[in-house]
């Protein structure tokens, strides 16, 4: 199982998630979400596997989200448009995202990580 961790090095929450995975001995491929955001296909797969609404994948507290006024725009966008937007700029994506191509976690919650990633 190849696990991918999408995080942002300056993000405190990402650092906590990365530390948790490392402390638990879970190996993963690390990607800087700002430099290597997930592709549209990867996002479609993650959204489908997560069981979460697509809006949960948006970094609603991010500067870019506010600058683009996405709170007002998202309700009128199609799912394809939302996915294309997320794939175009990793800073729009809530982070960290951890995925093994079957399970997905968005953000960091220790209990959720324990239930999802602890073997």
Number of E-type strands? 4
What percentage of amino acids are in beta strands?
5-15%
Order of helices and strands: EHEHHHHEEH
Distance between the termini: 12 Å
Low-pLDDT stretches are: none
Describe this structure in words.
The protein has 119 residues and is α+β, with helices and mostly antiparallel strands. 42% of the residues lie in helices and 12% in strands. It contains six helices and four strands. It has helices at 12-23, 40-50, 63-67, 70-73, 79-88, 110-117; strands at residues 4-7, 29-32, 97-99, 104-106. It has a four-stranded mixed sheet, sandwiched between helices. Strand 3 (97-99) and strand 4 form a beta hairpin. It is globular and about 40 Å long. The chain starts with a strand and ends with a helix. The relative contact order is 0.24.
């Amino acid at each position: 199982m190849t696990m991918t961790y999408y995080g942002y090095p300056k993000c405190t929450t990402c650092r906590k998630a990365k530390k948790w995975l490392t402390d638990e001995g879970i190996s993963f491929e690390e990607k800087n979400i700002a430099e290597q955001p997930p592709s549209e296909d990867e996002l479609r797969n993650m959204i489908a596997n997560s069981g979460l609404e697509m809006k949960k994948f948006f970094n609603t507290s991010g500067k870019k989200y506010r600058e683009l006024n996405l709170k007002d725009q998202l309700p009128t966008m199609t799912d394809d448009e939302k996915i294309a937007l997320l794939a175009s700029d990793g800073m729009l994506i809530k982070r960290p995202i951890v995925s093994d191509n079957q399970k997905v976690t968005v953000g960091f919650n220790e209990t959720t990580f324990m239930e999802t990633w602890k073997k």
